[in-house]
Write a structure and sequence with these properties.
The structure holds 2 protein chains of 2 kinds.
Chain A lengths: L1 H16 L10 H4 L1 E8 L9 H18 L5 E5 L3 E7 L4 H8 L5 E6 L15 E7 L3 E8 L7 E7 L1 H13 L5 E5 L2 E4 L11 E8 L1 H15 L4 E9 L1 H54 L6 H30 L4 H33 L2 H33 L22
Antiparallel strand pairs in A: 1-3, 1-11, 2-3, 4-5, 4-8, 6-7, 7-10, 8-9
Helix pairs in contact in A: 1-7, 3-6, 7-8, 7-10, 8-9, 8-10, 9-10
Chain B lengths: L1 H4 L19 H26 L7 H4 L1 E7 L6 H10 L5 E4 L5 E6 L4 H12 L10 E5 L1 H29 L2 H29 L5 H30 L7 H33 L5 H43 L1
Antiparallel strand pairs in B: 1-3, 1-4, 2-3
The chains are: A alpha+beta, B alpha+beta.
Chain lengths: 420, 321
């Protein structure tokens, strides 16, 4: 068992130092950055539903990818909201203007090849055709019905769109027509023949996923809904790191104070629970890296508080052990009973905390949720370190005769039992 | 006595210190009620002034907060005039070095807040690394409040069920009452901070309240656990009060030491944790102290009082029948 504890601790330390594979995830309030909540609004033509939301999210994701932010978060929240987190964004104003735009889809063709001077094959420019997303009825990804297999995207235009598309394809046979969403080309297939009935098939050796992506993006352009920004939190990078270094300093001081108190009051077991507490900190932080849990300022406060609560189990056990020693039990049996009797109290009290955490996690949003998760993980890990780790270490130490004295447990050596 | 000295393990622990809680249970409960008065008054004053038990921040009400640091000092008049031209009449707060301005206003949408930032930029170069914007639409705040209320209600119900299942129904009621007492003390503390220092509630406060309410229950469960254990070994003639008193005293060291360790972690956070969590951590600190008090002095006495009350009532009904 001692071996397991040592291995776990070493493993955790390994995880902690390996910043490359298990980086510390910092919340926006620490790293700085921007968090935006967007809400999709119904229009006369389009009611917001799960498919529409899927299209919007893919559009927003495209825009965010265009910003070149490392590790952006794009999440659906509720029925019609999208949360976008951009850690460490350089130009929040530009990003803000870009991601909340209503999607705009248009079809472009290449300008007629001009008399190009020999030796300079200039790439032909794309020009608008007048056909846009409002004339597109729908796009769908389907398995290729013909030879060759793979997936295709079928698109349908309304009558006006069909007419325009017919004209465009007629004059562009053998050349590409581009579908452009928010100034990004989604697809630019070559026209094989004029398409006059408004039903087109884009085939291009798509995989199922690629075909889906194209269809979803085309639909976003076909059914545009406005996005309203309903929340924005932008925090400069320096501002966040100032707060967190203060919180960490406070945490270290709190940790040191607990250790001083535990050793002063409980002596030998105090030393052991301090070691267990150190292991607790290392294990929990390693779990945060593995899951990974995003660290926020409230999360750090929760972590620090959980250190105080982790000690509680040890205090319960040691108080009970002391009591049993005062009753005149031998050291071993006092410790054994201390652990056993304290267990129900530890179990019930921590169950209530976990129950609270569960409710907070289910009903909370963002910050509250992160805090609940931090605290719950803390409680679970503390049960392991405060009970198992402490016990293993305590017995290990007691196997050395020099430590087998009740005075090390803060109890005066009992007067030698009078023989009757 | 000769009989007892045979066994070296005695049932009674030599007590270092004895606190007779149950002997004066009425006193302790009245004391709690008495010191709740100023907190309740603060809450009522807040209700009158802000329409809520505490001054609600923009997390709940919706609104826009902008904090901008300029390279050169600015004056409040300058900022006010610039923003006035944009039709925004905010509350302004300037740092002591006159370089950082805090703008609070009703909710400004995307275009408006961009406009305001651009207007501010005409006053001097804004340091982007220290820029902060918090803009919350009114619907989000209402949602947060609804979720918090829901979490609190369901959490309480869950705890009630758990303690009833593991212990007894009146233990559960008593711990919920003691927890509500702690909630009043904590909310009242924040009300006082709202009234005197303009503290505004944010989602961190919700987190703080819920955590300490959870801790408060955790603390009571430990004492109830001891009462449950001691009831099993109770001697003939022991009343519930005797057993409770013994249990409270046996767990006293633990109760005090655990809250001490929590206080030890919270005090550095209050002193140096930074302004964003200052008020919430302070409320947590008060809550831990209040929770420890109510665990020791309120939880068990309320159980006995409830038992006495219900047995009197059943006697009365018995007499009536």
């Amino acid at each position: 068992m001692l071996l397991v504890v040592v291995l776990l601790t070493l493993g955790s330390m390994y995880v902690l130092q390996d910043q490359k594979r298990f980086p510390t995830k910092l919340g926006l309030d620490i790293s700085g950055g921007m968090q935006v909540v967007l809400e999709a609004k119904d229009t006369e033509k389009v009611k917001v539903n799960p498919e529409v939301m899927q299209s919007i999210i893919s559009v927003v994701r495209n825009r965010v990818d265009g910003l070149g932010v490392a590790e952006p978060v794009i999440q659906k929240k509720g029925d019609r909201q999208i949360v976008v987190e951009l850690p460490g964004i350089e130009d929040p104003d530009r990003a803000r203007a870009m991601i909340g735009k209503t999607a705009h889809l248009k079809f472009q063709e290449q300008a007629a090849p001009q008399a190009v001077q020999p030796g300079t094959p200039a790439a032909p420019a794309w020009v608008d055709t007048g056909l846009d997303g409002s004339m597109l009825r729908s796009a769908k990804a389907e398995p290729n019905p013909g030879m060759g297999g793979g997936w295709v995207v079928t698109i349908k235009f309304d009558p006006q769109g069909a007419k325009l598309f017919g004209e465009i394809t007629s004059r562009n046979v053998g050349r590409p027509v581009a579908m452009v969403l928010d100034d990004t080309i989604i697809s630019a297939p070559n026209v094989n023949e004029p398409i006059l009935n408004g039903d087109a098939v884009i085939s291009g050796n798509f995989t199922a996923k690629e075909a889906q992506d194209v269809a979803v993006q085309l639909n976003a352009g076909a059914l545009p809904v406005p996005l309203e920004e309903i929340e924005n939190r932008t925090i400069g990078p320096t501002l966040g790191s100032d707060t967190v270094s203060a919180a960490i300093k406070a945490g270290v001081i709190g940790f040191a104070l607990i250790i001083v108190f535990m050793i002063a009051y409980y002596r030998l077991p105090g030393v052991i629970s301090s070691i267990a507490l150190g292991i607790y900190g290392v294990l929990l932080l390693a779990i945060f890296h593995l899951i990974p849990v995003t660290l926020t300022v409230p999360g750090i406060a929760g972590f620090i508080l959980s250190i105080g609560m982790a000690v509680d189990a040890n205090i319960l056990i040691f108080e009970r052990t002391k009591e049993e020693l005062l009753r005149g039990r031998s050291l071993y049996s006092a410790i054994e009973i201390g652990f056993k009797r304290a267990f129900t109290a530890i179990f019930d009290s921590n169950s209530t905390t976990l129950l609270t955490c569960a409710v907070l996690y289910i009903f909370g949003t963002g910050l509250v949720r992160g805090f609940a998760l931090t605290l719950a993980l803390g409680v679970i890990v503390s049960l392991f370190t405060a009970i198992t780790v402490t016990r293993v270490l305590l017995y290990q130490v007691l196997s050395n005769k020099a430590f087998k004295q009740t005075s090390y447990f803060g109890v005066k050596s009992p007067e030698p039992t009078k023989a009757n | 006595m000769a009989n007892e000295s045979k066994s070296p393990i005695s049932n009674e622990i030599p007590e270092r210190f004895h606190l007779n809680v149950m002997g004066r249970k009425g006193f302790w409960i009245w004391l709690s009620i008495a010191y709740m008065v100023p907190f309740v008054i603060a809450i009522v004053l807040c209700m009158q002034q802000f329409g809520a038990p505490v001054k609600l921040g923009l997390d709940f009400t919706g609104g826009t907060l902008m904090e901008a640091t300029f390279s050169e000092p600015v004056t409040v008049e300058q900022v006010r005039k610039t923003l006035d031209e944009k039709g925004v009449q905010p509350q302004l707060q300037l740092s002591t070095d006159n370089k950082t301005v805090m703008v609070r206003s009703h909710y400004l949408d995307k275009d408006k807040s961009t406009e305001v930032k651009e207007a501010l930029a005409t006053l001097g170069t804004i340091d982007e690394a220290h820029f902060r914007l918090e803009s919350v639409g009114p619907t989000i705040g209402a949602e947060l409040l609804k979720n918090a209320a829901m979490a609190m209600g369901l959490g309480t119900l869950g705890l009630l069920l758990y303690i009833t299942f593991r212990y007894q129904f009146d233990f559960a009621v008593s711990s919920i009452l003691a927890m509500l007492h702690d909630a009043v003390v904590m909310i009242g503390t924040f009300s006082i901070l709202s009234l005197t220092m303009g503290a505004e509630a944010d989602s961190m406060l919700v987190v703080a309240l819920l955590t300490i309410m959870g801790y408060s229950i955790h603390d009571k469960v430990v004492i109830f656990d001891r009462i449950r254990e001691n009831l099993k070994y109770a001697k003939k003639g022991d009343t519930f009060d005797d057993v409770s008193n013994r249990s409270i005293n046996q767990t006293l060291g633990r109760s005090i030491n655990t809250s001490l360790t929590l206080v030890l972690t919270l005090v550095p956070l209050v002193l140096m944790g930074g302004s964003t969590i200052f008020y919430s951590v302070l409320v947590m600190l008060v809550g831990v102290i209040s929770g420890t008090y109510s665990s020791i002095f309120n939880a068990a006495p309320v159980v006995t009082l409830m038992r006495e009350w219900s047995s009197k009532r059943s006697q009365k009904t018995a007499a009536a029948v």
